[in-house]
Structures are given as C-alpha cells and as structure tokens.
Design brief:
The protein has 9 helices and 6 strands; from the N terminus they run E-H-H-H-H-H-E-H-E-H-E-H-E-E-H. The chain is α/β, with parallel strands linked by helices and 225 residues long. Strands 3-2-1-4-5-6 form a 6-stranded parallel sheet. Strand 4 (161-165), helix 8 and strand 5 form a beta-alpha-beta unit.
Length: 225
C-alpha cells in the first residue's frame, strides 16, 4: 500500500520527551523565566517557534529567542542526549520496514544537528533516506511544513506515505499534509483521547511490529486498538 514511512523521533524512536522538557525549563530559568515542567511537557512535539511565545512571550526571530533556543540545544546535547535510550523495538521496526522495501523519512521539529545525535540512539542513522527538520521549514508542528519537507526530500506523494508519531501535533501536521498517521503511546503525557484522527494506536514500535499484519500497513481501513 505505501512506498514511504515518515517518522517523528522524540518520543517515537527515542525516550527523549521528558529530557527535552527539562532542557527547556533550565534554559528558560537561565533567561529569567521560571516556568514549571508541567507547563512545558505537554507542548513537547512543537518546535521552539511555537513553544517560546506560548510560555514566555518570546519570539524565535528575536535576539532573546535565538539565544534561548541555542542554549536549550546546548543543555539538551550535553546534559541529556548521552543518557537517552531508544523506545522499545525502535531499531527492529526500522529494519523491518527497510526489509519491506519502504523508504524511511524523518519529520521532526528538532534541527538537523540535533537529529544526528538522536538517530544514533536507535542505531538508525544509516536507515533513513531523507530528513525533514526545523531547518527545512518556516513553521514547526502542528503546521504541516516539516512533513511536507520530508515528502519533498523523499520525492514521495502524500497518498503513498504513512507517518508514525507520538503526539497530537504529529497527527495534525500529518493530516494537514495529507498523510495518515499511526500513533504511539510511548511518548507519554497523552491519553488515547488526544489521538483522535490516528489510523491506529499502539504502545510503542515493538507493539506495532508485533501487530504488523493487522496494522494500517496491511489494511486500507482506519483501525484502532
């Protein structure tokens, strides 16, 4: 049915959503903004262009926005990235899909430099054919720009692709790009009610792999578990 699979990374292939939120909390604090983790965590999956204005009234094109975003990246890469683990079954699912002759694409709100480090965690660096990152788009998720960038880089039409993600922002971005999405619970924070519009919902990549023959990869109609 499909020629390509588009993957989010944070929370989908790597257990990094909490770490991303902590990095934002610490960066905000260094810039004089005391923002609780509980406020940041539900926004992970958006890019900084959405998160900073919503939490602190800071815009990404401002000098403060650029400095804050860069500091957040430094904190994440030095304090958290070395300790992160892949989600259950992440590498196995990627290998399985490559064996099915599917093109693998990335669509993430992280920037290109961050993506390199993140993809090493599930041993997926060499498995992807193309990547759409925040560097390729004017607006991050839930806007569709990054998903569209991934499709363009993979030379793939939306009808021939399916996406795998872990947040409501992934679902909205995929839908606005004309792509169906499989939701994973392993990103945490959201219950199944937040995944309205997903073709199916699974615990993690391993759960999807175990149910592969009954999944949207093999079935044309929307399903849920």
């Amino acid at each position: 049915m499909f020629k390509a699979v588009i993957f989010d990374i944070d929370g989908t292939l790597v257990e990094s959503n909490d770490a991303q939120a902590q990095a934002w909390v610490q960066a905000f604090d260094e810039f004089g903004h005391r923002i609780e983790f509980a406020r940041v965590r539900p926004l992970i999956g958006m890019g900084g262009d959405k998160l900073m204005p919503q939490l602190a009234g800071i815009y990404p094109w401002s000098s403060d926005g650029k400095a804050l975003s860069e500091r957040r990246r430094e904190i994440f890469k030095t304090r958290y990235l070395p300790e992160l683990k892949p989600t259950r079954g992440a590498h196995r699912l990627l290998e399985w899909l490559r064996d099915e002759n599917l093109t693998l694409l990335v669509a993430t709100s992280a920037n290109a430099d961050e993506v390199e480090g993140l993809l090493r965690i599930p041993n997926g660096t060499k498995l992807f054919d193309a990547r759409g990152t925040s560097d390729d788009a004017d607006c991050s998720k839930p806007d569709p720009d990054i998903v569209k960038a991934a499709l363009a880089r993979g030379r793939c039409d939306p009808i021939d692709a399916i996406m795998v993600g872990d947040t409501p922002y992934d679902i909205e971005a995929a839908q606005r790009a004309g792509v169906g999405l499989i939701a994973l619970r392993c990103g945490g924070c959201w219950d199944d009610g937040a995944f309205g519009g997903a073709l199916a919902i699974y615990d993690d990549p391993e759960d999807l792999l175990q149910q592969f023959e009954l999944s949207p990869f093999k079935r044309p109609l929307p399903i849920s578990r």
